[in-house]
TrEMBL record:
Main location: cytoplasm
Protein name: ABHEA protein
Entries under SUPFAM superfamilies matching the protein: alpha/beta-Hydrolases
Species assigned in the record: Todus mexicanus (Puerto Rican tody)
Gene3D superfamilies per UniProt: alpha/beta hydrolase
Gene (UniProt): Abhd14a
Top-level taxon: Eukaryota
Source species taxonomy: Eukaryota, Metazoa, Chordata, Craniata, Vertebrata
Keywords on record: Cytoplasm
Keyword Cytoplasm annotated: yes
UniProt keyword Cytoplasm, yes or no: yes
Length: 141
């Protein structure tokens, strides 16, 4: 995410609209049609506005305790028809719980809670994460 770590801040992604346009452009350049967007932590700043504006361009959405879920209303989430797998570690009591509280308003969601896993639950419990992800991807077909 721009401005974090060693990445320089950039004007193009300073707004939610700019981030939607950026992600749209990336997907077009990669020739990706109806991808599944996996969004851990800070990537929520890009993925959530994209989901709300262009969710119809996605086959599925997999938020993993993303930031920014409280920036949108229950009504905004309820309009999204993208199949969603909400993933978080049960030891991520901050972002994991907050993301679930907000994202549960998405009408087509399932939840996968990874036991004994923290914020980066996919690193803490990779087998559990992959099992949940592959199960979700299989049911999208």
């Amino acid at each position: 995410v721009s401005g974090y770590g060693d990445s320089p801040p950039t004007e193009t992604v300073a707004t939610a609209q700019g981030r939607v346009a950026f992600l749209d452009h990336v997907l077009q350049q990669l020739g990706m049609w109806k991808p599944v967007l996996i969004s851990p932590s800070m990537s929520g700043r890009f993925a959530l506005p994209f989901l709300l504006a262009r969710g119809d361009r996605l086959s599925g959405f997999v938020p993993i305790a993303p930031v920014g879920t409280k920036d949108y209303t229950a009504e905004q989430y309820q309009r999204v028809q993208t199949p969603t797998l909400i993933v978080y570690g049960d030891r991520d009591t901050g972002l994991g719980a907050q993301a679930l509280q907000n994202l549960r308003h998405l009408p087509r969601h399932r939840v996968a809670v990874l036991p004994d896993a923290g914020h980066a639950c996919y690193l803490d419990k990779p087998e559990d994460f992959h099992r949940a992800l592959l199960g979700f991807l299989r049911q999208l077909k």
